[in-house]
Amino acid sequence: MSDQAAASKALVSQNEDPIAFTEVSAKFGNGHVAFADVTCQFEHGTSTALIGPNGSGKTTLLRMMCGLVPPSQGTICPEPSKKIFALVAQHHGQRGWLPLTVSNVLRMSRFRDRGLIKRLGAADRMLIENAAERLEVSDLDNRQFGELSGGQRQRVMVAQALAHDADVLLMDEPITGLDLPSQETILRIVDEERRRGRIVVISTHHMDEAELCDQVILLANRIVASGTPGEVLTNRNLQEAFGLRMAHGDKDDCVFHGEHDDHTDGIVHVFNDHGHGHDPYDR
């Protein structure tokens, strides 16, 4: 086992408690309720897809998991400060004008541990190199981030998240609008990180993407259904969440037509700031 693999294994084994939401609600100052009375659990070594219409609470739930949004009621156990999170927000409209190389963007992943001034050590470089290789962006090291295609930028951001070496990987619509090879690469990473023992949570509009996860949570400002993909992605549940115009067929034969808004801006936590054409308080 490599030094990096051993370090990652040790990190996960020290933070193996699941994340549990109990009757959690998110209400903003203007009275907008992103979701109410959400009770669910996220286990290490599993992947979860959050699915639902725009404004259903998916992005707020992701942000709340990592401590960027506090719950207005209910409990989250353990508290976000007890785990290390990496959040990749929606990639649309990333700040391409910033004068950063791909190498600069990837090195930012280690600022949490090293700060802005301290030199990166061998373990830091190993994490960065491994993440870049897995996302197939090693050859882009000296390229300007703003010159990359959308798929390349998103793969760099996911590589940055992996180099963060977190307990929990959160990704908000990670493959929306990407070229097919980039989609396949990122979905492979979701599966690999789950197998490595991390908690992986993604939001998505894609049925096929949700079907690859261990757990699906269908949101419509509350939990409509949660469980395995087969249990959740039924015509009845999708009609309840999205409305009759979104699903066609009988209860055993559902054809779902997803809906994508026009995103004009994006990326968060550590990896950029987020904001686009959704409700300003939630997506």
Distance separating the two termini = 41 Å
Could you tell me the radius of gyration in angstroms? Answer: 18 Å
DSSP helix count?
A: 10
* Biggest sheet: strand arrangement: 5-6-7-3-8-9
Topology as H/E string?
HEEEHEEHHHHEHEHEEHHEE
Question: What coarse outline follows from CA principal-axis ratios?
Answer: globular
| Major sheet attributes | 6 strands, mixed
Number of strands: 11
Instruction: Outline the low-pLDDT stretches.
Output: 1-13, 247-283
Average pLDDT score? 82
Describe the structure.
With 283 residues, the protein is α/β, with parallel strands linked by helices. The protein is 32% helix and 21% strand. It has 10 helices and 11 strands. The chain has helices spanning 3-14, 58-65, 102-107, 111-114, 122-134, 150-163, 180-195, 207-211, 229-232, 235-242, and strands spanning 19-27, 33-42, 46-51, 73-77, 85-88, 168-172, 199-204, 215-219, 223-227, 247-248, 255-256. The strands form 3 sheets. It has a 6-stranded mixed β-sheet with strand order 5-6-7-3-8-9, with helices on both faces. A 3-stranded antiparallel β-sheet has the order 2-1-4. Strands 10-11 form a two-stranded antiparallel sheet.
